[in-house]
Amino acid sequence: MTSTRTSARPAAAEGHFDHRMAVFGSDEAFVAAALPFLAEGLAASDEPPPVAIAAPGLLAALRDALGTDARDVGFIDHTDWYTGTAANAVAQGAGYLAANAGPGGRLHLLMEPDWAGRAGRSVRESTEWIRYESLANLLFAPFAPFATTALCAYDTRTAGPAVVDAARRAHPGTGVYEQPPVLVRELDAVPLPPPPRTFTRLPAAESVRAWAAGQGLAAADAELFARAVVAAAGAHGPVVEFLAWGEAPACVCELRLCRAVGDPLAGFVPPRDGEPEPGQGLWFTRQVCAYVDVRDGVPGDRAKIRVQYA
Are strands 239-245 and 200-202 parallel, antiparallel or unpaired? Predict the structure, then answer.
């Protein structure tokens, strides 16, 4: 194959997160979208080699098309990269950039979430990943500062039209892009199902551990779940009441708050030094729990944080 090191767009400007989207429905279309993007990364003299994170079959097709240039590209199976929740993916991405990117976060990343796996297993899960895509525009915005260039790959064979349409609203340059606070506010406006009538009212966050153990969570899991609830309460309290329901592993605790959380990035901004700073307790909560739903309240209803362990 002819080398992919052809003319390419200039690398991202200092402090600018370049967030792109490619939609495809075949291996050939994926390769056609990926090659010029990777060529751009290979041509950037101030960057490490570009990285492709995608399904194994797509990576194999890309390797074949790259020919000898494949040795200068990183390849990561997306099931190895996307190993947990959308909030875990934020941590993975931030950690990878800190360890591997060039000056100012310079790196070309081609990224395909696992829509055939966790990301696409339910409407609720897919919504979390669209929220992640939208918030990435703030998380890696100029104030970060990261000059990372990301191409998010959407395979219509696994993602489906509803997910693709929603994702377009999370990517600049698609013609239907929505500013993150607007899109996230819309996602968070969907009412949560009411607690079951069998819920338990707990006296404090510290009571969660004993309650969760009684619902079948192993001691270590019950402790972790309790720590997650305590962290959320400490960051966004005072809490009016704690409601708990469910059985292991899907134990749920709802924190009813005196005030709205307000910040759409709450719990998504990685701590600078590994440990959450004051007000960042929801980061820990999002890292250890499968679902963390924030609702800032409407007339007649309190602001709340609903935490589900698994």
Answer: antiparallel
Farthest CA pair distance, the chain:
68
Q: What is the pLDDT along the chain (310 residues), one digit of tens a residue?
A: 434 433 334 444 445 889 999 999 999 999 999 999 999 999 998 899 999 999 999 999 999 999 999 999 999 999 999 999 999 998 898 889 989 999 888 999 999 999 988 899 898 899 999 999 999 998 876 445 568 999 999 999 999 999 999 999 999 999 999 999 899 989 988 889 999 999 999 999 999 999 999 999 999 999 999 999 999 999 998 999 999 999 999 999 999 999 999 888 899 888 877 677 777 889 999 999 999 999 998 777 899 999 999 9
Tell me the C-alpha distance between 251 and 225, whole Å. Answer: 9
CATH code: domain 18-187 is: 3.40.50
How far apart CA 78 and CA 64 sit, in angstroms, is 18
Is 200-308 in CATH node 3.40.50.150?
Answer: no
> For the chain, what are the domain ranges?
18-187, 200-308
List the beta bridge partners of residue 239.
Answer: 257
- Strand spans (E) along the chain: 18-24, 51-54, 74-77, 107-111, 148-155, 200-202, 239-245, 252-257, 291-295, 304-308
Under 8 Å between Cβ of 308 and 243: no
Give this prediction's pTM. 0.86
Residues 6+ away with beta carbon under 8 Å from 159:
115, 120, 167
